[in-house]
Amino acid sequence: ILNVEQSPQSLHVQEGDSTNFTCSFPSSNFYALHWYRWETAKSPEALFVMTLNGDEKKKGRISATLNTKEGYSYLYIKGSQPEDSATYLCAFIAPPSNTGKLIFGQGTTLQVKP
Amino acid sequence: GAGVSQTPSNKVTEKGKYVELRCDPISGHTALYWYRQSLGQGPEFLIYFQGTGAADDSGLPNDRFFAVRPEGSVSTLKIQRTERGDSAVYLCASSLDAGNTIYFGEGSWLTVV
Questions:
Q1: Residue B16 in contact with residue A79, Cβ under 8 Å?
Q2: How far apart are CA A100 and CA B3, in angstroms?
Q3: In this predicted model, what pLDDT tens digit does every residue of A83-98 receive, in sequence order?
Q4: Are B26 and B105 in contact (CB under 8 A)?
Q5: At residue A34, what are phi and psi to the nearest 5 degrees?
Q6: pLDDT per residue as tens digits for the range A43-76
Q7: What is the DSSP letter of A96?
Q8: Which residues of A touch B106 (CB under 8 A)?
Q9: CA A87 to CA B8: how far, in whole Å?
């Protein structure tokens, strides 16, 4: 059974704090890892698609790293703002990779207090 | 439309009733997915369409759940004899082809009372 684990389950930080969370996934048969941000009453928004070991991607104040050999990815948010409050989901492409089928973690819910 | 559109956005139904949830994917996207998110969990895969055919329906929990995509565009997820445990957010997503970026709709929030 393919399992994707995210930690912590929830996080409360003050505006301006930097934060990070973890996604753990099976290291064998790796194809790609996706990060999504899901704000209440909106659709999940794709942040990053990561495919190569050692990948680092950045979008504004948000960045992500990937280690496929040990099966983890970190998402970092620098200088958190209230608008960053959302659930952050990571998802692993399940084999066979040509279906695009995603196996999601349970998400990390971030609350940024002004 | 510009994005994936799902209707209804909210549905409250009585236990035992039949429900249909509709998904209108991004125009031209051949791959379409249905996921379900229950409280406290991440989205779980239900079914994947490539064109009109269900290429992978391994995530459908039982035979009360069925989905169609007759013309390779709009898809309908059908739930018969609904149970309280079916209460969840049902997410639809599409991509240009399997393996490309996947775009999600806002979800249909189903509550079975």
A1: no
A2: 19
A3: 999 999 999 887 776 7
A4: no
A5: -110, 145
A6: 999 999 999 999 999 999 999 999 999 999 999 9
A7: S
A8: 41-43
A9: 23
Q: Locate tokens 């189903």: which residue?
A: B110
Structure token digits, residue B39: 């409280």
Q: Of A2, A100, A93, nearest to B102 (Cα)? A: A100
**Chain A / chain B CB contacts < 8 angstroms:** 62
Neighbours of B6 (CB within 10 A): 25
**B23 interaction partners in chain A (CB closer than 8 Å):** none
Three-state SS across B43-56? CEEEEEEECCEEEE
Nearest CA to A75 out of A112, A31, A28, A110 is that of A110
What is the rounded distance in angstroms from the CA atom of residue A112 to the CA atom of residue A114?
7
Q: Which pair of tokens denotes residue B76?
A: 């309908």
d(CA B37, CA B43): 4
